[in-house]
């Protein structure tokens, strides 16, 4: 199957142009720059000698700030009063082609200004593989748009230091994709270790070669890469000495010099994404059974106590979930003013690393560690209600849309894969708890007379109407 990419989508062109216009006035630069030792007055780079192709210098900060403000005003964004960093933010709603945009932006920067050393940093291996796949499937498309512009791309692999050497010394445009985990642990990171395979003149550490090129860094999902304004990820990015950093996400936490924004409302209004419906479940009036949660165990001034959350009745009879302090021997019906806690007694509180609280009840004795709950609603019961509601919403929508030949798709995002699908010792897939609940609730729902018109189009077996897509573990089995 061959994919077709549209090259003239206005909102994508605007995002690309907004970044490229930051460097307006800079002429295209195609020559190699010599990296000299500090004594010769070139780059302040320890021990650097010789020559290698590097990214051209960008305009001075006063010009860059002026260009930035022009772009921001054009895009109806608040202008940045000062240029306190070379970090620039592009906000694009999920599903609008963010990866395509930043890949094409790199090629446009090369075309307009001769920039040729790019590093894409992502938060996870899964996203890294996704970016690499996009580079593969867009290669023919981009080569038709940027004829005569060769470029190389590869995944950073610490076992292949020669790739970093090629990144630094090649005159061909370079795109290297890596995870933040590959750069934020100096003590074990091979980027910071000397290697004969990466030596160029006096530079023998991969990180020094990268720094020498004045790389342009693209951060995909920076809120998951940075680790905060001064987090390990952000520190590691800055330690690569980028000429500038472009940050792409739909959900930025820290917005450094916004140059383009296509938020959820913009994307929906421009019919770029579909509207979705979300159903929520809220548990109300669940205070008719005893509830106890252990928050902490305290040992202050030789007084041992514990903090627990219970349901307390006020003078008007209203019940509120609140924290109280308890001691050995306390009975919870007295503390809460509620008869349902009759027989609930704190029999012992132990401190230390293995600390616990012993709660005696009429039916059992519980040894509670911090965070444990007694009397909470069964979480699987909540999941069953949500699955049941979703199935009925799906079938109702099918009834409305079948005559228009519109296919209905419902997605479940789950917390653990093995709750939906498991793999036994023989490698055979088996349904998890969520899958079993789904099939039970589906069979109940489809028997309703309300859905009789849907029966001819539905598979005979419940297992045929659902499936899951997950990453594959290292052994090749489904996780």
TrEMBL record:
Gene3D superfamilies, alphabetized: P-loop containing nucleotide triphosphate hydrolases
GO molecular function: ATP binding; DNA binding; helicase activity; hydrolase activity
Domain of life of the source: Bacteria
Domain Helicase/UvrB N-terminal: residue ranges: 11-251
InterPro entries: Helicase/UvrB_N (IPR006935), P-loop_NTPase (IPR027417)
Protein keywords: ATP-binding, Helicase, Hydrolase, Nucleotide-binding
Coiled coil: none
Official protein name in the record: DEAD/DEAH box helicase
Record organism: Salmonella enterica (Salmonella choleraesuis)
